[in-house]
């Protein structure tokens, strides 16, 4: 995924300012629902797993949750999202009610049948 791919998605998938949905956080994002339209999903797929590039953290959301709440931040102040802000891609899930579902430095997105790898703590107090 790159900024050209993101820019070619329909306007309905672009989030021009995440602070409208998540006060205190800034930047541009793209709705995961738009990204999922770019590829054929496996038959019966029902989960999407977002994993950090280092493989240390992952969150597996239902396909419906990923489509409804998932936003990948990719830019702040007209520049790529820096690593200290969770870049180059950071999953945020405003409205989901689970801050532990937010994944910094997303390096892989996997669509699966059944729950994928999920390292979120059982007590979701992130």
UniProtKB/TrEMBL annotation:
Q: Where is each Oxidoreductase molybdopterin-binding domain found?
A: 29-112
A Pfam family per the record: Oxidored_molyb
UniProt xrefs under SUPFAM superfamilies:
Oxidoreductase molybdopterin-binding domain
| This protein's name | Molybdopterin-dependent oxidoreductase
Name its species: Candidatus Nitronereus thalassa
């Amino acid at each position: 995924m790159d900024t050209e791919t993101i820019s070619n998605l329909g306007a309905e998938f672009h989030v021009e300012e995440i602070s409208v949905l998540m006060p205190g956080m800034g930047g541009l994002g793209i709705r995961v629902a738009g990204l999922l339209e770019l590829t054929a999903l496996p038959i019966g797929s029902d989960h999407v797993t977002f994993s950090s590039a280092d493989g240390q953290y992952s969150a597996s959301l239902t396909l419906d949750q990923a489509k409804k709440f998932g936003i990948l931040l990719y830019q702040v102040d007209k520049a790529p999202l820096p690593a200290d802000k969770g870049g180059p891609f950071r999953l945020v899930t405003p409205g989901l009610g689970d801050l532990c579902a937010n994944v910094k430095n997303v390096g892989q997105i996997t669509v699966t049948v059944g729950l994928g790898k999920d390292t979120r703590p059982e007590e979701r107090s992130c």
